[in-house]
TrEMBL record:
Compartments, record wording: Cell inner membrane
Family: Belongs to the TRAP transporter small permease family.
Entry-linked InterPro entries: DctQ, TRAP_DctQ
Upper lineage: Bacteria, Pseudomonadati, Pseudomonadota, Alphaproteobacteria, Rhodobacterales
Name of the protein described by the UniProt record: TRAP transporter small permease protein
Stated role: Part of the tripartite ATP-independent periplasmic (TRAP) transport system.
Length: 163
């Protein structure tokens, strides 16, 4: 099971670089648009895809690293509540992430497995000039991110891995 934590940490570090890529894409767009009068059709959608991926996989990264946000006001005042707080947060997180994984799977399934009457594959698209299948990819990534986050969270239930 340590593989999950290692994978979540690796994926989080990789996707963190996406924010740097967004900066490069936006600089390119600004120079192309205002310097050469030739705006791109793809810069906005690529930026949304990169930011979406980084945020989607960031939750599992923070949970695996043990840096996920905690509100510890009550626990600091009443140390005996720490164990209860820990288990309540695990249960609430598991319920939420299970629902998110299920709902995002249903959305991804409908967005990806779409076919025209002639049998050709037509995944959900943005409808913009670039018209990429970005919504399909983001919905699939949301499912994978929620599932990874849920598995890393459930890893905390195992003996010797409380955080």
């Amino acid at each position: 099971m340590r593989f999950l934590d290692t994978f979540a940490l690796w994926l989080g570090r990789i996707t963190a670089w996406f924010f740097g890529a967004i900066i490069l894409v936006m600089v390119f767009e600004v120079v192309a648009r205002y310097g050469f009068g030739a705006p791109t059709a793809w810069a906005h959608e690529i930026s949304v895809l990169l930011a979406g991926a980084a945020f989607i996989f960031g939750g599992a990264f923070c949970m695996a690293e043990g840096t996920h946000m905690r509100i510890s006001f009550l626990v600091e005042k009443h140390p005996r509540l720490e164990r209860l707080s820990h288990w309540l947060s695990l249960v609430a997180g598991a319920i939420y992430l299970s629902g998110l994984a299920y709902a995002s799977w249903r959305m991804a399934e409908r967005a990806i497995w779409r076919f025209a009457l002639d049998g050709s594959w037509i995944p959900e698209r943005t409808g913009s000039t670039f018209n990429s299948p970005l919504p399909s990819y983001l919905k699939a990534m949301l499912f994978l991110g929620a599932l990874l986050f849920l598995l890393v969270l459930l890893r905390r239930v195992l003996p010797g891995k409380a955080s």
